[in-house]
Design goal:
The protein is built from 11 helices and 15 strands. The protein is of the alpha/beta class. The protein has a 7-stranded mixed β-sheet with strand order 7-6-5-8-9-15-14, sandwiched between helices. It has a 4-stranded antiparallel β-sheet with strand order 10-11-13-12. Strands 1-2 form a two-stranded antiparallel ribbon. Helix 2 runs parallel beside helix 4 (149-157). The termini are far apart.
């Protein structure tokens, strides 16, 4: 599809200046000041901020409104590392329908935060996934963004206001929203600078006095048996690593590195059907964990060793009958980015995670001169902070 500059200009003009940075557009309409995909024209299945043109190549769209502090098109921080492209973006594109079927329950702490917002608030959800929080409160207006076009299509089909965008480069003007949330997203960012930038972006797009809620997976998992079967990366990736090779993993040692069950939000018939077909895989996924069991069999030595790791691959088991919906899984298997597990009848994807240690999230915020921490807490194996914009 050839990029239609005049159409985009009309869209942005009608948006009252809401968008200031490049975003992915494909057959879009404008509604209430934002751009929204239509059922007839889906968002292009892309994992970066680009549009597909007739020659099949990806071309970054130019910024329409650029302030001096937003000129970072060549910045390393906003250049997506290969590990995120392969083990976050491509994975969620491939598993989107199945992933969405497991995401419907509202986490109590997030619900409490959203309920506390004044009536009429504009809430920006960065990394909205399938949009389970969009429209949570009928008294507030919600806009969601996510890097995964397939997940954004799911949101659009549900009638939500959404756009494909990167968390480190949000497509909103400064001070646009009244509040912002980013739930279980920043642990997919592979460098400290990108995590800092994502926090700065959330603060930037809210008004003075606006609140920001951020949650991330914690090193201090309450169910330690979960961590022992994640795959720890053999080295912490250096800042802005964009190497061409796939990440190496730690050789088998005293830790069992095979894929493990994850706790998913249970309740949908579709998810229960899938769960039976892949045994008990995909039954636990942090902040939605419903059973926090103690694993007394782990020695303190192994536990301490686990807690020294922060970079992991966490498996997602996509049942065979869900994997053939598109060609994504076939390509992933051919490229070595996924593997078959015939015993469980699933294609196994690895998702990259940087799990946060105690105080790490607060340290990322400490250097900011335009926001303060108004609350911080640990909830169901997640570290959480609420920020207030002061300038």
């Amino acid at each position: 599809m050839v990029f239609n500059a005049s159409r985009l200009k009309q869209c942005v003009c009608r948006s009252f200046g809401a968008f200031t940075l490049p975003i992915t557009f494909s057959d879009i309409i404008c509604h209430l000041g934002v751009c929204k995909t239509t059922r007839e024209g889906k968002v292009d299945m892309a994992s970066n901020l680009c549009t597909l043109v007739s020659d099949g190549e990806s071309h970054t769209l130019p910024s329409l409104v650029v302030s001096q502090d937003q000129i970072c098109s060549v910045s390393n921080v906003q250049s997506t590392p290969e590990i995120e492209k392969k083990y976050v973006h491509h994975v969620y594109d491939a598993i989107a329908p199945h992933f969405s079927s497991t995401r419907f329950a509202k986490w109590p702490k997030v619900a409490t935060f959203l309920k506390s917002l004044p009536s009429g608030s504009l809430v920006l959800d960065a990394g909205c996934g399938n949009g389970k929080y969009l429209g949570f409160s009928p008294d507030c207006f919600f806009i969601g963004c996510d890097i995964s076009a397939p997940l954004i299509n799911i949101c659009a089909d549900r009638g939500h206001e959404v756009v494909v965008a990167d968390a480190v480069n949000l497509p909103y003007r400064t001070g646009f929203g009244d509040a912002a949330i980013s739930i279980a997203v920043f642990h997919h960012l592979s460098t400290e600078n990108r995590r800092k930038k994502a926090i700065q972006e959330l603060v930037r797009v809210v008004k003075k006095g606006g609140l920001v809620l951020i949650t991330v997976w914690a090193v201090e998992q309450e169910n330690r048996s979960l961590v022992t079967k994640w795959t720890p990366l053999s080295e912490k990736y250096v800042e802005e690593w964009i190497g061409p090779r796939s990440p190496r993993t730690r050789s088998p040692s005293s830790l069992n590195l095979e894929s493990i069950p994850e706790t998913e939000e249970s309740g949908s018939r579709e998810h229960l059907k899938d769960s039976k077909e892949i045994s008990i895989e995909n039954l636990q996924d942090t902040m939605h964990s419903t059973c926090q069991t103690k694993d007394d069999s782990l020695s303190s030595k192994i536990k301490n060793n686990d807690e020294n790791h922060q970079e992991y691959f966490v498996p997602w088991h996509l049942p065979y009958h869900r994997a053939e919906v598109s060609g994504a899984s076939a390509c992933a298997l051919a490229n070595g980015l996924a593997k078959k597990d015939d015993k469980k009848g699933a294609v196994v994807y690895n998702r990259y995670y940087h799990v946060f240690s105690e105080g790490e999230l607060e340290r990322l915020v400490s250097g900011m001169d335009n926001a303060v921490i108004v609350d911080q807490f640990f909830d169901k194996s997640n570290w959480c902070v609420i920020l207030e914009k002061t300038l």
